[in-house]
């Protein structure tokens, strides 16, 4: 009987192991499908960017390129002065991310640690601000920028988008700081640490991975921003990459290879940025999960 029970247990174990192995392969296949769907637009833009208009017209957008022509990429690069637009986008995105993270940290410190009066009501107002469409804010912001002399200035875009991002950052960080261990703060207060010292020497080192993830998201969101830079940056020297891609809505609308070239050049910097800071994102998410 003991031998029979052992054989049955081994058979059940093997059966469960086979089912577990099949389940892993199914999950892997699903992930591969999602990965292919995610990468498909990028490869489609890359294939069409190196096609000639005749090749595109003859074989369509889904066919592999029969030619290798960089004319569309070169034309877009020269037409919109892409290096200048790239610098503007990087500068605006980086400054906006830094500004939004700093403002979010200060607001969340006052709400989560300082426990200011009306903190919960302020969070509700921030949630409403997050849900408000940008189209409803453009005209009053445009009028204010005109009045204070900040129209057609990169500083105005940095300030506006940074404040808009601060609503989400404050809500996220305040929820984290609300559960911050009070014992650590009380120990710092016993050592006669000021509020600024508690913030920069106690809280910021603990939240550094979360702040890095938040800054990364703010950078990518600002890079993809189109409406506000389009309205507030009318000079060619101040425009961003996303706005520069709008020049294709004119005479070049019927040239799909030019649109593909613009899409490829526009998305490549964000992919490079994501690959560089991939470890930062992974580490921040892992630390947040442990907390």
Question: What features would you describe in this structure?
Answer:
This protein has 291 residues and is an all-alpha fold. The chain folds into two domains: 58 residues; 169 residues, MetI-like (MetI-like fold), CATH 1.10.3720.10. The chain has 13 helices and no strands. Helix 1 crosses helix 12 and helix 4 runs antiparallel to helix 9. The two termini are 50 Å apart.
Number of helices: 13
Q: What proportion strand?
A: under 5%
Q: Can you tell me the CATH architecture of the largest domain?
A: Orthogonal Bundle
Instruction: Give the proportion of residues in helices.
Output: over 70%
CATH evolutionary superfamily of the largest domain: MetI-like
Mean pLDDT: 81
Mind describing the biggest β-sheet? none
Low-pLDDT sequence parts: 286-291
CATH topology of the largest domain: MetI-like fold
